[in-house]
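From the pipeline queue, job 12 of 40. The input is one protein chain; the requested action is below.

Action: predict structure.
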Amino acid sequence: MHLIPLANKETQISLKKRKYEIFVAGGHTVETEPGFSINIFQSGTGEQTTLKELTFRVRTYENNKKAVKCYTFEAKEDGNHTVVIGNPECLRVKNSILSERGLSQLVFNLLLPERARRKDISEIDLIIRGLSLIHI
């Protein structure tokens, strides 16, 4: 498992040849605004790995933090890879799973403003976790 603070725009990690999941840790609501990107390059060749954005995002807990599984990818070869995060300020993460619209959100914001607050970049991590080789 690799823990990458969102504020680190470029990070070197070592990956084995297998499938991986990318979680955004720090809340249970994740929204991407135009401009946000995650790119993974194999350090030796510079080849870019294709990420698959998940249509249905799974909410879970990873590394004792609220997290949302957002992407999957496959590392084609063992070795060092570079994770590049573009415009991290365009990633919106909140504790609440309620929509930002409607009367229920207005009441929620008044009663529990901490949960409705948008997380700062320093509070958000990316977690890259390899899938197990055994699938049941």
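Job complete. The CA atoms of residues 7 and 122 lie 6 Å apart.
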